[in-house]
Amino acid sequence: MQRDRVHSHPLSCFPICGVLIMSFGLWVLLDNQSFIAVLQESSTTLKVASYILITVGSLSMVMGFLGCIGAIYEIRCLLGLYFTCLLLILIAQVTAGVLIYFQRDRLQQEMSTIVKGMLVNYTGQNRTTEHSWDYVQRTMKCCGWVSPGNWLENVWIKNSSVSLYPCSCRNETLPGTDMNETGLCEHLSADRPVYQTGCMHSVEAWLLENCGVILGICVGVAVLELLGMILSMCLCKSVVQEDYTKVPKY
Question: Tell me, what's the pLDDT at 148?
Answer without folding.
Answer: 92
